[in-house]
Amino acid sequence: MDEFLRFLHARYEADNHAYAEVAYRFGGDAILDSHLPMLDLVDMLAREYEAMDPSDTRLLGLCYALRVLAQSYAEHPDYRAEWRP
Prior knowledge:
This protein is mainly alpha-helical.
């Protein structure tokens, strides 16, 4: 799971850098309808997962949710088939 979380964090950083570049080149209005809020939510969920106690009953559900959300990166070369939900 550690590699999966590192993958998610790396995608979050890369996507945020890409949006920052778009905003720099074309102005803030260019990202008004972007997926930035969704990126922030995925990162927040990943951080909550990392902070959860292993005995927390919500852990499996949160893991499943993260795997579902990560499917949007299935075409990325670092994505692994075993991460599919």
